[in-house]
Every structure is written in structure tokens, then in C-alpha cells.
Amino acid sequence: MSGFPDPKEAQVRQLLEGPHPPVPTGLAAAAAARGSRLLRRYRALRRFGWAVLFAAAAAFAVWAALTRPWVTPPSGVSPPLEGW
């Protein structure tokens, strides 16, 4: 390690030691209001997503119950008649 101080470290130390600029008076209240607004929006979007997922699952269940896609459709051709 050389004896010269690192210029980046010196800049960081100068920034941390001050002088610090004054903080606006309503900054904390504005940040808290914005944070709560973002949290409400996130919760609403999450609830909407769960509601859409539930509605899609219910629609799929109703469709599957009505059309029964697992049952093979009846054949249009009858088997040959034997034994006469």
C-alpha cells in the first residue's frame, strides 16, 4: 500500500463530515405519505391479482364441469354387426 491517500476515500470523508445542507421542513411527512400511498396501491393490485386468479380458476372449473373434456366423444361410425 502506498503512502498516498485514496482520492475517492477523501471525497467520501469530506461528504460525511459536513457541512450538511438543511432538510426541507415537510420532507419526512411527504415521504411517509408517498410511502403509504404506494403501499395502498401495491395491496390493491395484489388483491386484484388474486381476484382475477380466483375468477379464472372458477371459470375453468365451470367450463370443465360443463364440457367434460376428459370424456372421449362418441364415435360417428357404428361397429360392424356380427352374428346374424
From TrEMBL:
Start-end of Basic and acidic residues biased regions: 1-11
Keyword Transmembrane helix: yes
Record region (Disordered): 1-21
Keywords attached to this entry: Membrane, Transmembrane, Transmembrane helix
Top-level division of the source organism's lineage: Bacteria
Annotated TM spans: 48-66
Protein name: Uncharacterized protein
